[in-house]
């Protein structure tokens, strides 16, 4: 007899419908599987055979053929164990076949018939819903992830026997808690807050502007001046996660196996801070079967590179394409994998080996040492940073006063207002933030009056800006105006934007200027 059931495979971070076909017929007894299978999927025949036996089923000595289609998509992982078992049972007439066409099955089988969790449950349920299915059977541990999706019933399983008894109408499945609800507003679950930081008004302002327009920011200054503290608090002032963002970010973490029953979805924006010894593959993602790297895990949030000059040059240079395109493509012999990489890049570094340059009362580094140290950051990477914020040592007086700064919640209100202006401005385009504007967008959305145009010309000539630097000042000025709710950019906005860029020339002017 012939039978078919539906399952979902994972390609990158997306789910792809897979049809599992089974044919049980007379002939020389055997168990064969086809359909461009990895070794993990091929091993399913041993797991499935033993799980069926230990669940009380006796498979007849017949020829069993399993096909996973489409055949041009490589099947990976152990999640096909459960659908293969159900397909065999259906083809053997041991379970009812009616109603299977609207169901999706996914799960790994233990030799005793238990259904074990698999990665990517959220992607599986979303793909099943998109494919028009009404019920998705998952391991019990994965049900929390899947149940945040509306419009499809998600059933959790403990054992294969429970499922077959239910399909045959012998008994009901165990009751589980109600479906998960999406988390509330972002900002409530962070352990840090901007109110923890006193002083450093320039860094506070630079960080606020960066978060409002998704501008990449570099903090440069001596050690112990708060660079890392500011970077860690960027997610706390970013707007609340929308439903679409929650789903997209959670899919990534689900595929990587980083969600749990207690945290079935990502409730806060990611903050990833890889160590400077990280390999290029771990940053970008990769492997024989590519998996998301730190760039993708930071999507929707912040990627923080502390001690930027200590990273391998080859590792830093990987940032070029993702920062421009918002995604990273990894190609292997059996296909190309695309992973999202839409993050705000924040970096921190010292200005010289000792950290005190350009304060010559403390810095003892020679000019060649300083230039060699700063030269570890290539010009193309440096150009990817919109804002360069210099930190300064905190005085003893400021330290002892202990005045609290403005809380993240109040800063976030201004940023959300600025973001709403950007959403309205870019409606109908592929742009979402000021930092993503191209030349034609600048001409359309950053129009200046005569006085402002003359002022910008003076800035351009006095700072010796490149075309890229000129465009970045316009983008930053547009964001500053949005924070004030202004439709037009003024001289003050342009002047502040130039100030947020001038630190770069102060340190790298002698190298790249």
Automatic annotation (TrEMBL):
GO terms for biological process: proteolysis. Coiled coil: none annotated. Keywords: Hydrolase, Protease. InterPro entries: CHLI-like, Mg_chelat-rel, Mg_chelat-rel_C, Mg_chelatse_chII-like_cat_dom, P-loop_NTPase, Ribosomal_Su5_D2-typ_SF, Ribsml_uS5_D2-typ_fold_subgr. It comes from the Bacteria. One of its GO terms (molecular function) is peptidase activity. It holds the Pfam family Mg_chelatase. Residues 193-397 form the Magnesium chelatase ChlI-like catalytic domain. The keyword Transmembrane helix does not apply. Residues 405-501 form the Mg chelatase-related protein C-terminal domain. The keyword Plastid does not apply. NCBIfam families: YifB family Mg chelatase-like AAA ATPase (TIGR00368). This is ATP-dependent protease. The gene is comM.
């Amino acid at each position: 007899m012939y039978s078919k059931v539906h399952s979902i495979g994972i390609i990158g971070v997306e789910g792809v419908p897979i049809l599992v076909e089974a044919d049980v017929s007379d002939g020389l007894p055997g168990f064969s599987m086809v359909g461009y299978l990895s070794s993990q999927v091929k091993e399913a025949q041993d797991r499935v055979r033993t799980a069926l036996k230990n669940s009380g089923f006796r498979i007849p000595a017949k020829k069993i053929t399993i096909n996973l289609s489409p055949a041009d998509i490589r099947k990976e992982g152990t999640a096909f164990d459960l659908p293969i078992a159900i397909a065999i049972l259906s083809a053997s007439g041991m379970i009812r076949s009616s109603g299977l066409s609207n169901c999706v099955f996914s799960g790994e089988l233990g030799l005793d018939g238990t259904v074990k969790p698999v990665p990517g449950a959220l992607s599986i349920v979303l793909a099943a819903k998109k494919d028009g299915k009404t019920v998705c059977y998952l391991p019990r541990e994965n049900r929390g992830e899947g149940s945040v999706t509306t419009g499809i019933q998600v059933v959790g399983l403990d054992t294969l026997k429970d499922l077959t008894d239910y399909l045959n109408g012998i008994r009901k499945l165990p009751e589980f808690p109600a479906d998960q609800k999406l988390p509330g507003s972002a900002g409530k679950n962070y352990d840090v807050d901007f109110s923890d930081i006193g002083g450093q008004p320039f860094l506070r302002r630079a960080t606020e502007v960066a978060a409002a327009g998704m501008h990449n920011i570099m903090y440069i200054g001596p050690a112990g001046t708060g660079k890392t503290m500011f970077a860690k608090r960027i997610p706390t002032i970013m707007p609340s996660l929308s439903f679409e963002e929650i789903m997209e970010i959670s899919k990534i973490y689900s595929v990587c196996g980083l969600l749990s029953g207690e945290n079935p979805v990502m409730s806060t924006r990611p903050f990833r801070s890889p160590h400077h010894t990280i390999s290029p593959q771990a940053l970008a993602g990769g492997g024989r079967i590519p998996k998301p790297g730190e760039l993708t895990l930071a999507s929707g949030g912040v990627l923080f590179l502390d001690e930027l000059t200590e990273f391998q040059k080859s590792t830093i240079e990987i940032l070029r394409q993702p920062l421009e395109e918002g995604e990273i493509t990894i190609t292997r012999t059996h296909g190309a994998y695309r992973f999202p990489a839409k993050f705000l890049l924040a970096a921190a570094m010292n200005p010289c080996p000792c950290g005190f340059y350009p304060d010559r009362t403390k810095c003892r580094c020679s000019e060649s040492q300083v230039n060699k140290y700063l030269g570890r950051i290539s010009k193309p990477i440096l150009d990817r940073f919109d804002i360069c914020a210099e930190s300064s040592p905190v005085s003893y007086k400021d330290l002892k006063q202990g005045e609290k700064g403005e809380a993240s919640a109040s800063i976030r209100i201004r940023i959300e207002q600025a973001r709403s202006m950007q959403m309205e401005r870019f409606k109908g385009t592929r742009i979402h933030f000021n930092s993503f504007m191209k030349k034609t967008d600048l001409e359309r959305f950053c129009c200046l009056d005569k006085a402002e145009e003359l002022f910008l010309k003076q800035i351009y000539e006095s700072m010796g800006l490149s075309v890229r630097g000129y465009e970045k000042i316009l983008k930053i000025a547009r964001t500053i105006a949005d924070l004030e709710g202004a439709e037009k950019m003024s001289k003050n906005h342009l002047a502040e934007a130039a100030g947020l860029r001038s630190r770069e020339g102060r340190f790298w002017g002698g190298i790249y200027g």
